[in-house]
Amino acid sequence: MQKIGGDKVKRALLASTALGLLLCTGYAHSSVTLYGVVDSNIEYVNKLTNASGASGSVVRNSGGGFASNRWGVRGVEDLGGGLKGIFTVEGGFNVDTGTQFNANKLYDRQTFVGVSSDEYGQLTFGRQYSTIFRALANFSPSAYAPMYEPLSFLLGMNLRNDNSVNYVIQRGSIGARLHWTFGNGVFGAGETPGEIRANAGYGASLEYSAGEFGASIAYDQFYPTLTTLGDNGIGNFRKAAIGAGYNLGKFRFSGGYRWGRNEFSNGSVALRDDFLWFGVNYQVAPKVNLMLAYYYDKLHTLRAQYNGAELDRPNPYQVSFMASYDFSKRTNVYLTTAYSKNVALAFGGLATTAASGAYLLGAGKSSQVGAALGIRHIF
């Protein structure tokens, strides 16, 4: 068989090889990683209401029972002298429908760029998690499992902040975090000309971890515009929390306390509460893990609207249980269940803000049960 254009093919191969070597040399100290989580389950919930007012039980295909569905890209470039350039772009999606989790934001989870120094810490800019979210992450018994964890109620709807600057530094067993947001758009508006305080916020934390014990203390302050609650001014939402955890053989004990006070622009209290949680994790076998957690909220004051009457309702609580089996480091199956009293699952419908959550109790109901059997894969 006659070869056609053999010399041209050889020259093209040599050129492409040389270009590849040049690119590899130029980016030898850089890396970009595509990653994500796909989590799907079959869920049962009773006493659930919907927008039309109907109430009853439902069986459905849901996502994010063990971990939130997401995909992202992160990268790092070694700049020399212990300094690195870093970035992360990450978005959530609904595995059951293939749609974006947040219809208005493609990369709703986090998008930031910054620098990291071995000596001076890490400074980043963009949409990022709040300081209090990071500070308490190691002391959530379910590791912030999204299906029944009362996360938004615990940390507030500003657990992610638009337009934020975050700083993190670690010195041995002691770590510190700071953040400032110029305008979080969680209530529809971000940075506001002429009003530097509108939708702005900040937070700080100290964290300790050594051996089998860890603890953290954190503070968060947020100034949301509250037009959705009939308030034409700027509110003042404050939270302070402490969390701790201890490993004892196959057991891990963790828990914490969060103080909260949300005020309308006129100073009247929208929500004043004390939130507590405690949990136990037990590794039955190398591939089998169990979790039992209890969440309780002491309600002091609750108002649903600006200048509204104070609501009188019993203190809510929830008990959660999870079991998982690991096929590998990346794939596992799980069962997650929860029972709530005086509130919907994940404390849905209790908060006086958009943090009401996906679960709402039917009229005249005071408790709710949910259970889901699913599979999660990490890539």
From TrEMBL:
GO terms for cellular component: cell outer membrane; pore complex. It is a multi-pass membrane protein. InterPro entries: Gram-neg_bact_OMP (IPR050298), Gram_neg_porin_domain (IPR033900), Porin_dom_sf (IPR023614). Keywords: Cell outer membrane, Ion transport, Membrane, Plasmid, Porin, Signal, Transmembrane, Transmembrane beta strand, Transport. GO terms for biological process: monoatomic ion transport. The keyword Transport applies. Gene3D superfamilies: Porin. Residues 1-30 form the signal peptide. Residues 15-342 form the Porin domain. Transmembrane segments: none annotated. It is found in: Cell outer membrane. Its main location: membrane. One of its GO terms (molecular function) is porin activity. Pfam families: Porin_4. Homotrimer. This is Outer membrane protein (Porin).
